Amino acid sequence: MFVEVIRHFYGYHFAENRSLWDNYVMSLSQEQFTQPVAYSMGSVRNQIVHMMSVDDIWFSGLRGLEIPDWLNPDDFNDRGRIRAHWDTLEQTMRAYLADLRDETLFEKPFSEGEDENLITWQVLLHVVNHGTDHRAQLLRVLFDLGVKTSSQDYIFYVYDNP
Questions:
Q1: At 128, is the pLDDT very low, low, confident or very high (cuts 50, 70, 90)?
Q2: Are 118 and 109 in contact (CB under 8 A)?
Q3: What is the pTM of this model?
Q4: Nearest to 131 by CA among 17, 23, 2
């Protein structure tokens, strides 16, 4: 039962990432996309690459894989490349979530370091919360660039996905 709640919450995470991308980011000029911003990660592109890195790093750890290096935003000037990478990452995350079981949510996936006392459900909630935080930051940056944005509130996802 708990795992279904997590999957639902990730449905929100994935839907909001796609909405952000399709409704706002794709309408930006390349200059706006990479324009330095004195806030958070430094540009729309950099924010998105950061979000992908964080999701990949945490899910690699949850899957017991070697933690990947942080992605370099300079390697992602092409939005098609970003979208392809983000889609692949989402599919990897969905595959992990599909195999997730209630009992797994209460395991400690990391055996050492500062994360050794984290429980799987805590990590999973953190990843979505982190994404929500950075999407909110992006919505502000997009607004400042003149893009008309809308809410990303979870409750609106619930209304459409009971």
A1: very high
A2: yes
A3: 0.91
A4: 17
